[in-house]
Write a structure and sequence with these properties.
Blueprint: E1 24-29, E2 42-46, E3 51-53, E4 74-82, H1 90-100, E5 106-109, H2 140-155, E6 159-162, H3 180-195, H4 197-201, H5 213-216, E7 219-220, H6 228-237, E8 242-243, E9 247-248, E10 255-256, E11 259-261, E12 264-268, E13 275-277, H7 280-287, H8 298-317, E14 324-329, H9 333-349, E15 355-357, H10 360-368, H11 372-378, H12 391-394
Parallel strand pairs: 4-5, 4-14, 4-15, 5-6, 7-8, 8-11, 9-12
Antiparallel strand pairs: 1-2, 2-3, 10-11, 12-13
InterPro entries: CE4, Glyco_hydro/deAcase_b/a-brl
Signal peptide: 1-18
Keywords: Signal
């Protein structure tokens, strides 16, 4: 990622093994962006012009309720923690990949990636000194590139969520020790860095982000999957619609504190006697324990993750059709093995009939459109278990 002080812990997902408005202030042409009204549509700037109203998000279809007897689609959500564009150009790579395969994704932005190093003191992390961050900050070029990718991603139907800011994990002030008040401060600052990136960088000639972040931001994933209990309390009071900081199995989601629980899921690790969370970091920890493992094993490890993801997909696809939740980082760990694994997985699963590769926002919209009684019924299906009487009878209306 852009930060010079980036550490391996940025990807830590906790347990590795199976046991584990602002007011408008003017308008300007839409700078050639397609969708949201078209290339020549007029946008309304918000605040300092870092963000703007551009109408409904393009590339997002209206959710439909399942018809009686209809088998549910197989949803797959590919999500990215940190979401910044640096010299590796992984953000742009996977944004283009999604467009190629008709997949939309969720990008969890770390707010400090829109804050330049010389403005670090603008960040007041809970329980830490002002201006500190475990993942550093950014520079003007990095911010310009990241904003460009965020803009394009949203216009292509992707979601921009949050991975918060300083990525503090473990003891000594890690997010696991944060209070509800601490979380509210962190969330407020994450929003502020997005809403004021022009002021903080003086890149005033750049086009705005084409969304109102107060409305766009409806969910996130906590650093290292820590601090979830108090985060949920804060997020529910702030109107978040989902959280994806938990761990669980491949079953249909339910709500917790009024928010959809999109926990990361346990999936097979081919050739091993345990399962792992469907996240690149966890596969890396289980395989090498380091981001720079034996180069002769890189292809094997990448294949192992790809095959595990596809096995997890097939288990759901031919079974209970539970949405599959996959988490990743824009990192070249073990020679880029996991980026290749995800890229190949997208190419396989998103092409399958009745499969929808979508963002968390789109999944939440679809779930909210369903009959609660049908969702309750779907939640009775165990991992990999299709209805014994067939989908037509299982999803039929009650007599």
């Amino acid at each position: 990622m852009p930060a010079s002080t980036r550490k391996l812990a940025v990807g830590a997902a906790g347990t590795a093994l199976a046991v584990g408005i602002a007011s408008c202030s003017g308008s300007l042409p839409h700078h050639g962006a397609q969708g949201a009204g078209g290339a020549n549509a007029v946008v309304r700037l918000i605040g300092d012009g870092s963000t703007a109203y551009t109408g409904n998000q393009p590339g997002v279809s209206r959710p439909e309720r399942l018809k009686p007897g209809q088998r549910p689609p197989q949803f797959v959500v590919f999500s990215w923690d940190g979401a910044g564009e640096d010299s590796q150009k992984l953000f742009s790579r996977f944004r283009k990949l999604g467009r190629k395969h008709g997949a939309t994704m969720t990008y969890f932005l770390s707010g400090v990636y829109l804050l330049p190093e010389d403005k670090a003191s603008e960040y007041e992390p809970p329980q830490h000194a002002r201006g500190s961050s475990e993942i550093g900050f950014n520079d003007s070029q990095g911010i310009k590139a990241t904003v460009r990718e965020l803009r394009r991603a949203w216009l292509e139907g992707n979601e921009i969520g949050t991975h918060f800011n300083g990525h503090f994990c473990g003891a000594d002030g890690g997010v696991g020790s944060w209070s509800v008040k601490d979380w509210k401060s962190e969330i407020s600052q994450a929003k502020s860095f997005v809403k004021h990136w022009k002021t903080n960088t003086e890149l005033t000639s750049e086009p705005p982000l084409p969304f109102d972040y107060d409305k766009e931001l409806i969910g996130g994933r906590t650093p290292c999957l820590e601090g979830r209990e108090n985060f949920l309390k804060a997020a529910s009071e702030l109107g978040f619609r989902y959280d994806t900081s938990g761990t669980g199995e491949q079953v249909w989601p339910d709500k917790e504190r009024g928010m959809w629980d999109f926990s990361l899921q346990m999936i097979p690790v081919p050739g091993r006697a345990f399962e792992s969370l469907a996240m690149d970091y966890n596969f890396m920890v289980n395989q090498s324990g380091t981001s720079k493992g034996d180069p002769t094993m890189h292809r094997y490890w990448g294949d192992q993750m790809r095959n595990g993801l596809i096995q997890g997909f097939e288990r759901a696809y031919s079974g209970n059709r539970a949405p599959m939740i996959i988490g990743n980082h824009f990192e070249s760990w073990n020679g880029g093995a996991y980026m290749r694994a995800v890229e190949e997985t997208v190419g396989v699963v998103c092409a399958r009939p009745e499969t929808r590769c979508v963002s968390f926002r789109q999944l939440a919209d679809w779930l909210d459109a369903q009959d609660p009684k049908v969702l309750a019924k779907l939640r009775t299906l165990p991992v990999g278990q299709a209805p014994r009487q067939g989908w037509e009878a299982f999803v039929a209306p009650s007599p």
